[in-house]
Amino acid sequence: MQKVLVLLFLAWVCFLYYIGIVLFTSGFLLTRLELTNQSSCQEPPGPGSLPWGSQGKPGACWMASRFSRVVWLLIDALRFDFAQPQHSHVPGKPSAASLPFLGKLNSLQRILEMQPHHARLYRSQVDPPTTTMQRLKALTTGSLPTFIDAGSNFASHAIVEDNLIQQLASAGKRVVFMGDDTWKDLFPGAFSQAFFFSSFNVRDLHTVDNGILEHLYPTMDSGEWDVLIAHFLGVDHCGHKHGPSHPEMAKKLSQMDQVIQGVVEHLTNDTLLVVAGDHGMTINGDHGGDSELEVSAALFLYSPTAIFSSVPPEEPEVIPQVSLVPTLALLLGLPIPFGNIGEVIAELFSGGTDAHPHSSALAQASALHINAQQVSRFLHTYSAATQDLQVSELHRLQNLFAKASADYQQLLQSAQGAEVPLQTVIAELQQFLRGARALCLESWARFSLVRMAGGAVLLAAACFLCLLASQWTTRPGFPFSPLLLTSVACGLAGAILYAGLLAATGLKLDSVILGTAAAGGSLLPFLWKAWAGCGSKRSLATQLPIPGPVLLVLFLRLAAFFSDSFVVAEARATPFLLGSLILFLVAQLHWEGQLLPSKLLTTSRLSFSAPTGPPRHGGTYALRLGVGLLLCTRLAGLFHRCPEETPACHSSPWLSPLASMVGGRAKNLWYGVCVGALVALLIVVRLWLRRYGNLKSPEPPVLFVRWGLPLMALGTSAYWALASGAEEAPPHLQALVAGASVLLPRAVMGLAASGLLLLLWRPVTVLVKAGPGASRTRTILTPFSGPPTSQADLDYVVPQIYRHMQEEFRGRLERTQSQGPLTVAAYQLGSVYSAALVTALVLLAFPLLLLHVERISLVFLLLFLQSFLLLHLLAAGIPISTTGPFTVPWQAVSAWALLATQTFYSTGHQPVFPAIHWHAAFVGFPEGHGSSTWLPALLVGANTFASHLLFAVGCPLLLLWPFLCESQGPRKRRKPLAMEAETRGRFEEEEEEPLMEMRLRDAPHHFNAALLQLGLKYLFVLGVQILACALAASILRRHLMVWKVFAPKFIFEAIGFAVSSVGLLLGIALVMRVDGAVSSWFRKLVLAQQT
Amino acid sequence: MKDTDIKRLLYTHLLCIFSIFLSTFIPSFFLDNFSILETHLTWLGICSVFVTAVNLMLYLVVKPNVSSKRSSLSHKVTRVLKCCIYFLMSCFLLHVVFVLYGAPLTELVLETFLFAVILSTYTTVPCLCLLGPNLRAWLRVFSRNGVTSIWENSLQITTISSFVGAWLGAFPIPLDWERPWQVWPISCTLGATFGYVAGLVISPLWIYRNRKQLTYKNN
Ligand SMILES: [Zn+2]
Ligand SMILES: [Zn+2]
């Protein structure tokens, strides 16, 4: 198999995954751009005069205020039917007795019957996602918040858009808040007085409500407020705990009824009472999705003075929830928030019972007109900033607004207009407002179940492909290139078909759908192939041979994605699973009898049927490795950052930068430890390289390893010293310190980059010895008279040269009396691939380390130790097949992926946005980046996904390591031999030499197939993770924690997958580059020896 | 191997299960407020003592292993001492393993240690009774084709199922159900107990079902 083919095949699989992820994301995570523009009193939303009397009055803005004070009782999850008046005579409806939540809010019903011109009940139509935070944003900004509001600050939840609370504050109103502490995050410092209660424990029905009740009436009576907001959580928590059809719900609603009753009694005449639910709940008491029960909430308005000109209709009117925002703003004499797309409730502007019908209608029209002007201004600004909205529809709306506006102006000019055209203008304005809302809704607030399902199916198909194809690689002569070719052709055909279809129908091109068409098309040949294979002699079950216990670990890990508790606890669950897998591997090695010499076992183990050979290592070798791994894992777990969901947990203090430490001695000590870790890492790597003879040659990459790496370590520690003690520097050195803290990180990164380039340029650093041995080489090569003409010649010649070189080298070693029988290793050929990879990993690790806080260097040291131990442990269980096919077992790949996840957590990360290390963006750029966004994004991304990248690049080590360990086995076995016989040199030459990684080189076809298989297996393990995340997010989209836990987890997994897949391709490409360089090196050698 | 052997095995196992039952009921006659969950540590100690006692009794009565040709008193004493040391060592070793697996290092030390004790009771004590303080024999029993009798076979099964039970017991800990048995290490000890009982039940049945295939080299 060709090398290019392997890379192309993997790239194709990655492409399938990417399209699946993007398709799923486009259906699941709706995005919207947050505009930070503010409405202001001085700046009316459009041309034309403001309504009468508004300019003159003090405290009035776009309209004169009608109420000076508002009491807003927000009852979380107050579904519409909870508040619906119960007429006992209506047949066919469930009576209040059967359902405990019906008819409990009697005070609303009484008010509506006794004071019909004072109160209204509405069914408020909520936009999904029906989660409290999103609803609070909607109820204050008047917009349609989505999960990711682009441009929002991920580090905090504070609302950056224009909103009611901010307008109230800037108008000088005193806003008093009591209840759910979500408001504290959303509006930091906006309240004149606030009583926050934790919303964390959903099982606690009473703490928040009782806390509010303690403060509610005293505050109302004190009069120290203009707007009073009370957010009750009991009903919502009761729904989550017991569901709505539980006697507890009846009690809770009765309590709320008493609250409303009490507040009504305390109201003064200039006050408006708003009772609103933020969303509904399903029959199980959950919310978050878009089912009918979740999106219908109650909204009740009451004024002690009459404000409505008509009596309430029999069936309450349905209004969008966001209508409350412009209505409240205008009623309080505030400008409507800039991003509002709600429509004012016109009834409230009618002026009460005694108003003249015409002036009443005119007042409604003017309120609607201001509202329409504001929405039109918003649409204009928004469509200028982004391309989300449909252009044709936008154009239609603009025309509609222009006409309505012109009609309205005309109406104002003609002083005595008839009432009929006035109604037309109102209808036109309402039509425009509803159209605008529908337009925004279309692009912002709909889960697309089709896209989500399509994305999940595509991901599942890609996983299936990885699983099957990784089995196919071991089959000799499997036609991969035709499969790839037909796949690409079919994919292109699918894309062209879709584009043609679009061209025919004249629709807009959607790049996501285009990609889906291509991916779906390219999957067809594979599916056909799988189907054909399924029908033929092999059944599918025999093609999927993941061993049971590994399957169990993998399954447990995937099942954990479906439980919010386990996602939150993943930082602890992953080391547990990893430890289980490690001990299982050790136990398995013991079970297979590879740990003990066979004579210890009484039963005969000499039968040739046993597939495993004699033990290659000492008795406790694997046990020591396993315990060391567990120890490292546990130590790395000390660097633990707590998720915000578990208040009892304490984050490790070691995750804070040294600069935040007080106390000189401790700081200095820690600094020493960090530098020590850095030096230890360097020494470990150099020792490893030296052991395999990779530090001998004068090639540039070797020189770089010898001198460049210490230089990088020096730069890093100098930077740490500056960063941790910058404020302690004397004043005249400040400029120098500032300059150095810019230069040093950049220098280290530049060094790393140049090192990587050097490595790519000259990956083979084999020491070629020109000397007296040359004559003997010629004797071996005599059968070939000419230069090698074909690959077959080369394949034949190369092993001979190689063996000869070993021989020669051994002779030289014996002459110089140097110890150590590692003949091949000394020539570096035996570790040529892994040496390049390890060097690349170290070069990558340094810049990544620089982006973390100082003490994470200990984790990086542990990371290298852990992977080293794990590789040895895995290698102990993998028998070396001498000629191929080479395979990497599933448990190796799973353990590697688990290790990557564990390192993600132990480097102080959590899959939630507030936990991102933003400081990484300022490493080397202390002044910020100006307007550029990709560079800080790259730095923060590199910080967050450092472990994904390192482990993905290092993935080919899983394949190489067993060959590397080959040199240990025979040595151990020989030791007693050496004791017995003095003439060891001559004697052993007859034995087969440890060819180490040259075995791979000798079977290039199997080597490439093994690389492909390794890549596919790793992609499979990562792919099922992202698939599980996607399924969890879509199945649990009504879950309380979907936006807090599952959706962020999906996003982190998706980005992590992208990083890992790119890293994997890079790692495999690096191995192939080395392979190519080795080939050309051999070719050169052959040519040189023949002259 | 005869069916009588299997019968004896079954009866001894039933006795072990019975001892666990007793350990949950008998103390409530003597101790106030005794329950498995609330006075968990007491129960752990009592259960450990009961199971150890039954195992020793069975060892003395049934004598499943036919070794120990030398039977001088000093040899017996050293043997008993060795067994005690082995048991303690296994407790400490398991404690270390639990900590490595994520148990708290400085808090709840007594709880963790008692968990180690109960797990040692389920695993090490039967091993000591059956195989004596002979590490090589232990290693042999727990490797492929290393079993030489149905007693060893059942030992293998009960030990592995105890470990698996304890392992599975760790899974409910992160869940937010807020049940009293989710506290460390209650779910793990309960899991280990259930695993042990399950092993005791399963192993005679499994041996009985596979009695045709089971041939032991040394029998
Ligand atoms: Zn809510
Ligand atoms: Zn809720």
TrEMBL record, chain A:
CDD domains: GPI_EPT_3. SUPFAM superfamilies: Alkaline phosphatase-like. Pfam families: Phosphodiest. GO terms for biological process: GPI anchor biosynthetic process. The chain crosses the membrane at residues 449-470, 482-505, 511-528, 540-561, 573-591, 669-689, 704-723, 735-761, 832-851, 858-880, 945-965, 1018-1038, 1050-1074. One of its GO terms (cellular component) is endoplasmic reticulum membrane. It is a multi-pass membrane protein. GO terms for molecular function: mannose-ethanolamine phosphotransferase activity. It is found in: Endoplasmic reticulum membrane. Keywords: Endoplasmic reticulum, Glycoprotein, GPI-anchor biosynthesis, Membrane, Transferase, Transmembrane, Transmembrane helix. Pathway: Glycolipid biosynthesis; glycosylphosphatidylinositol-anchor biosynthesis. It comes from the Eukaryota. Belongs to the PIGG/PIGN/PIGO family. PIGO subfamily. This is GPI ethanolamine phosphate transferase 3, catalytic subunit. It comes from Jaculus jaculus.
UniProtKB/TrEMBL annotation, chain B:
Keywords: Endoplasmic reticulum, GPI-anchor biosynthesis, Membrane, Transmembrane, Transmembrane helix. InterPro entries: GPI_biosynthesis_protein_Pig-F. GO terms for biological process: GPI anchor biosynthetic process. Pfam families: PIG-F. It is a multi-pass membrane protein. Its main location: endoplasmic reticulum. GO terms for cellular component: endoplasmic reticulum membrane. The keyword Transmembrane helix applies. Pathway: Glycolipid biosynthesis; glycosylphosphatidylinositol-anchor biosynthesis. It is found in: Endoplasmic reticulum membrane. It comes from the Eukaryota. The chain crosses the membrane at residues 9-31, 43-62, 83-101, 113-133, 154-175, 181-208. The keyword Membrane applies. This is Phosphatidylinositol glycan anchor biosynthesis, class F. It comes from Jaculus jaculus.
